[in-house]
Amino acid sequence: MPKQKTHSGAKKRFKVTGSGKIMKQGAGMRHNLEKKSSELTRRLNREKVLAPQDAKNIKRLLGK
Predict the structure, then answer these.
(1) What is the CATH number of domain 8-62?
(2) DSSP code per residue over 4-61
(3) Cys-Cys link to 10, which of 19, 28, 37, 61 (CB 3.0-4.6 A)?
(4) Are 26 and 51 in contact (CB under 8 A)?
(5) How far apart are alpha carbons 24 and 38 in whole angstroms?
(6) Which DSSP state fits 63?
(7) 10 Å Cβ neighbour count for 14?
(8) pLDDT, tens digit, 9 for 90 and up, residues 7-53
């Protein structure tokens, strides 16, 4: 049976921590940044832990 390939879109957007949690960038950091306060952009730019319900599907896409 062939190897399972990693989902290209998922590998660009998520990373797995050492303990197995899935991290993602905050939503809203792609455009209209000059209207958002510096405080807000700093908060959005931090990595967030993905909810466990979503993490199961993402782990499958990443082949973990």
Answers:
(1) 4.10.410.60
(2) PPPPHHHHHHEEE-TTS-EEEEPTT-SS-TTTS-HHHHHHHHSEEEPPHHHHHHHHHH
(3) 61
(4) no
(5) 20
(6) T
(7) 20
(8) 999 999 999 999 999 999 988 888 999 999 999 999 999 999 999 99
